[in-house]
Each structure stands twice: as C-alpha cells, then as structure tokens.
Design goal:
The protein is an alpha/beta fold. The chain contains nine helices and nine strands.
C-alpha cells in the first residue's frame, strides 16, 4: 500500500471503524490489502450507509469489526445464502459476502453456485490463499498441483485429489449477461480496487450477481519469507489462476 513522501500513511477509508486497533491477521497476510481496497471502493461509491457486510468463518471472520458498517457473521459456507436473503428482504441495501476459498469453494460451494444460478443481486468476494489458513494450513480447493500442505505433505496430487477450483471461470460460464466476474490480486491493489468497484456498481445498477476472487498471501502456512511469498503469488498462483475480468455487463470478454 502506498506511503506518502513525508512517510505519513494515507488516511483510512471513512467506512473503517474510527478507533485504533491491533492488526488481527498474521504478518504478511493479504486480507488487510483486500479489505483496504474494499473500504476505499465503498467510500468512493458513497454507499457506506447502505452496506450489509457478511463475513464467513475462517480468517475472514477477523474482518467482522473492521468497518463502520452493518456487519453479520454467518455459519461456515453460508455467507452467500445470508447475503442473498438480506438482499431479497431489503433490496435497497448493498449486500457483500466475504469469504475464503474454503467457505466459497468447499463447504459453501452449493450456496455460491446456487446464488449465481439464481443471479442474486449481491456482491461476493472470495480470498484465495491456496490453503485453510486459520486451522493450520490444510489442503484447500485452490491448493496448487504439487503444493505441500499439512494434509498433502508430498504435494497435491491431481490424480488423487483433483485439480484446483477455478471459480471465476466456472461462474462466468454459467451466469447470464449483466453479471460481473473478475479475479484480482493483492500484488496489484489498484487493479483489485477497480474490480471491486465494478462489482459493487453492478449491484447498484441491479444488473446481476457480481463476484471477485482475490489472490492473496499466507506466509505463515506457506512457510515462506517475503521474497518467496511474492514469488509464489506472482509466478505460481497467477499462472494457475490468471488475473482479469471474466464477465463484464454490456461488454463481455476478458480484460
């Protein structure tokens, strides 16, 4: 994140809670970058008072008191279902579902796919760090082929455990026109914020379901130093999971 030339950090987004707090994520975790990009997107769109922010179980639940916005914690994997219900009950609200790769692609996959199939007018944000971070770094739906985790100590075997889940590609193929689907990365916060703003704008416009996957870092469970962390993110994850827009209202195609 950018630091001004006088070494004073830029102000926090207005939608962040005003009291100063100790950072709750592990050193090097990408959640903070995703959340700052989201906070700035909310501020720039001027929708703070309309947002209902739903957080899943896992590392992402530590965001439950980051924002000065109405926030609800859901059962694991049920975040899209809760956000969909809130949106249907209060269609004037901007409903955001925030989850990890396990919450969206494993225990919550049925809710993600069905929300997309119904073209629910919500915004779903999924943070992909290729493992179950909060519970010790087990293999997740997004673990790369050959990647070692607590439950794949010899590396993920595609033959035995299957291939990683490619969520944006899957959702873009099934969603109707008007939906928005993209994959960003914490390695490019400005682009990630642009994608998040477009996803929220799609909900504001009522054109359809919007989804952004964010490639993120987990040096604690990857057991990597700073250089190896960014190398894995930019040179391995981004190869398996290409960054870009997969479905854009009234435009279509990749960017």
């Amino acid at each position: 994140m950018a630091i001004e030339m006088n070494n004073v950090a830029p102000p926090m987004p207005a939608c962040w809670r005003k009291e100063t707090k100790t950072h709750k994520f592990c050193p090097g975790c990408g959640h903070g970058i995703v959340l700052k990009a989201l906070g700035e997107a909310v501020d720039e769109l001027g929708i703070q008072e309309k947002v209902i922010f739903s957080v899943d179980i896992g590392c992402c639940l530590l965001a439950i008191d980051f924002f000065n916005m109405d926030t609800v914690q859901t059962h694991h994997g049920r975040t899209n279902a809760v956000a969909s219900g809130v949106k249907r009950a209060t269609p004037d609200k901007i409903c955001i579902a925030y989850m990890g790769d396990g919450g969206g692609y494993a225990i919550g996959s049925q809710h993600l796919l069905n929300a997309a199939a119904r073209n629910e007018k919500i915004t779903s944000i999924l943070v992909n760090n290729t493992n179950y971070g909060m519970t010790g770094g087990q293999m997740a739906p997004t673990t790369l082929p050959g990647q070692k985790t607590e439950t794949s100590p010899y590396g993920r075997s595609v033959e035995q455990q299957g291939s990683p889940t490619h969520g944006p590609e899957m959702l873009a193929a099934m969603l109707p026109e008007g939906a928005y689907v993209a994959r960003g990365t914490v390695a490019n916060p400005k682009q990630l914020k642009k994608y998040l703003k477009k996803a929220l704008q799609a909900q504001i416009n009522g054109t359809g379901f919007s989804f952004v996957e964010a490639l993120s870092t987990c040096p604690t469970n990857w057991s990597t130093n700073a250089a190896k962390t960014w190398d894995f993110l930019e040179n391995q994850m981004a190869v398996e999971f290409p960054v870009g827009e997969y479905k854009v209202p009234q435009e279509g195609g990749n960017e």
